[in-house]
Amino acid sequence: MKNHSVTTLQIDLKAANFNLNYFKEKLKENTKILVVVKAFGYGSDAIEIAKSVHKSVDYFAVAYTDEGIALREAGINTPILVLHPQISNLELIIKNCLEPNLYSFGILKAFISITDSQKLTDYPVHIKFNTGLNRLGFKPDEVSIITKIISEHNSVKVASIFSHLAASEDKNERNFSLSQIALFEKITVDFKQKIGYKPQLHLCNTSGILNYPQAHFDMVRLGIGLYGFGNDENETSNLKNVISLKSIISQIHTIKKGESIGYNRAFIADKEVKTATIPIGHADGINRKFGNGIGYVSINNQKAVIIGNVCMDMIMVDISGIDCNEGDEVVIFDNQQTVEKFAKDTNTISYELITAISQRIKREILI
Ligand SMILES: *Cc1c(COP(=O)(O)O)cnc(C)c1O
Description:
Layout: E1 8-12, H1 13-24, E2 32-36, H2 38-43, H3 46-53, E3 59-62, H4 65-73, E4 80-82, H5 90-95, E5 99-102, H6 105-117, E6 123-128, H7 143-151, E7 156-162, H8 174-195, E8 200-202, H9 206-211, E9 219-222, H10 233-236, E10 243-248, E11 251-255, E12 260-261, E13 267-268, E14 273-278, E15 296-299, E16 302-305, E17 315-318, E18 329-333, H11 339-345, H12 350-355, E19 362-366
Helix pairs in contact: 1-3, 7-8
Residues 36, 38, 83, 164, 205-206, 221-225 line the site of pyridoxal-5'-phosphate (PLP).
């Protein structure tokens, strides 16, 4: 699709590679790295990111099957783990050489029946255990049944066993994380013994990599860190900013005392106010909750808060006292006006802000 939108998401591939190397330096020499590019590469551009880093990574992961297919269609040959496949996706997974996470008996049996019927051997699968997140995964006491089923079918081979930490970024939950690590160790010792070979083990996401070096196992799963977020200000300051979201001022208005701004007349001027209208709205990922003084942009390095309600395609911001003109640049996020600060001020998290940036916004790749 042609995209002449002026609102642009710049994606700095050099910065992504810098961040990748920053995390790789934290790993032991033989520890592998999987890069998570789900949700369009955390709202950036999964294909551009994957093309840029694939030589330095062992695996990619996506959430859904179609995200994996898009990478294959773009020519990515790296192994791809599909974290959340459904039974209805399994044939497509095989057709596209994707590797499923098998997290329940339903999906395990469904997959084996397909690999058996296609007379495949050793098709790589990944077995996920629930160690406390209570989201996806087998129970710890299901190891015997899983290994029995798999041992009876040589059409699949367990490439890895993994689990996911519930609060790896939260130092107050350290004991809980340590208990998840201990449980994962126990499960995997049991599993390896029963299956008779050694699948790769992996547990850590970005903040797990930073906070639990003892739990890197054979591979780590780097997501948000690649995109420049370390889950606390200190770690983020060691990373480079990958995404910058910029727009321009479409129009400037001077609003008289008593006039209202935007839908539902949510803002009534109690004095003269100068406003700028910016072509980005809730359809682009600027949540309606950021309206009425909560969210803000930066114009000529000055903060301009959103006034009134966020519209579908526009916001109006208060530029009283800011020296600016129609056509001037507006920064929503960059290395100064950071996603993390905005997330904190608007009571959300970086993950939600960046993955909400809609596909309508033009992507500009900086190499
Ligand atoms: C999204 C995801 C990751 C990456 O997490 P980050 O915190 O972004 O590093 C790792 N593992 C699983 C299972 C995930 O769903």
